[in-house]
Request: fold
Amino acid sequence: MTPDPETTPVVEIVRREEFSSAHRLHSDALTDEENRRIFGPCNNTHGHNYALEVVVRGAVDRQTGMVMNLSDLTSLVQEKVVLEVDHKNLSEDVPFLQGRVATAENLAVAFWERLQPDIETFEGCRLHRIRLYESQNNFVDYFGPGPAAARISSASS
Ligand SMILES: [Zn+2]
Reply:
């Protein structure tokens, strides 16, 4: 039965995973000198203990009382992201990150692209946000392509 949008509660569920990786902020589009100036010490290979939060939004199923089984979400996040990046050099060893500067911003976008198609296969679920902590005090949020990008372009016009 299709859930009634008027009466079905919509809830966000969150899975948090941690991983440790090395990276080096370096753009092939810039000279070595520009890379050193822009990225400073982050142009050298170094590491972070990352925390990733994956937020899925959906209607609470009447029968199961769940938006999506959190064990399914956990398996997906581990298989599609954590196993691919943990204890790796993000700037060299991860095929789906090839050609991207391994900033938190680019990682969040890449993780979205890895997870979104699988999450959409669960009925009524959609990926709402990727939050990636690069350190305790530094994190980025990505809400996917679309509304946020549209807001920026409309604000600048
Ligand atoms: Zn770093």
Summary: Helices lie at 32-39, 70-85, 104-120, 147-156. The radius of gyration is 18 Å.
